Amino acid sequence: MSNPTPTLRTTTANDPVTGDPRRVGFFTDTSVCIGCKACEVACKQWNQLPDDGFSLTAKSFDNTIDLDATTWRHVGFIERDEPVSGQETNLGDPFSWLFIPDSCKHCTDAGCLDNCPTGALVRTEYDTVYVQPDICNGCGTCVVSCPFGVIDRHPTDGRAWKCTMCYDRLRDDETPACAQACPTEAIASASSTSFGGGPTSAWPSCTTGALRRPGSTEPTMTTCPAPAVCTPSTCCSTPRRLLAAHQPGGAAADRQRGWRAMAGALGAMAAGVAVAALSGRRGR
Fold this sequence. Notes:
8 strands; 13% strand; alpha+beta
């Protein structure tokens, strides 16, 4: 997993055509995602990431399950009791699939970047968040600071890894591998101006009707999971009730419970050592 070290964002990359600052983000249209996972394969191939194994999880048809240090793009399979034309099952009960491609949001206010004690996480000239593996000390602070459960520590070397939005491809003016491989163009990567925003203004939001698919003049009619926090991601035609799993706080809350449990265990160990020491003194 070797990636080029990015330039610290003292200046912003400019669009070669318009000359405007080039702030890059993902736009994900779940209404045309077919769940083929071509984006997952392309991500792993380009970034030379290991496979997830070939064991059956028995959790729907999704065997990737979640994002981690070696899985930077994940397509979630969500079963819903809402009929959709073209997905008739003839089982009597209403049923349809919702496929949600997910990856790092490259947040405007990134908790992982703000809390990294070594400066391993930086914001690139494309306004994306990048982990410098040669500076990361594996402390895991970024992991508990990410509200989306994206960044993770590698089980072997202990360092943190996540989606780079194919920084090396952006430098060559190429599309990220996942967006390039998507057969239905459910994943689009473009600058903020292509999404309907200004070159230096905040990212456009679904909730204001400003966000649009690159190349289209029609705004999306949907709600973004966290428009105030993330760049355009997983926005189009996602039912409001199914966004709960993608709201900030869920993954962070789980990890916070883990930290509290660990702190409790360490406290109990310290108390045990203290009791043992006192008992030893009394025995003398």
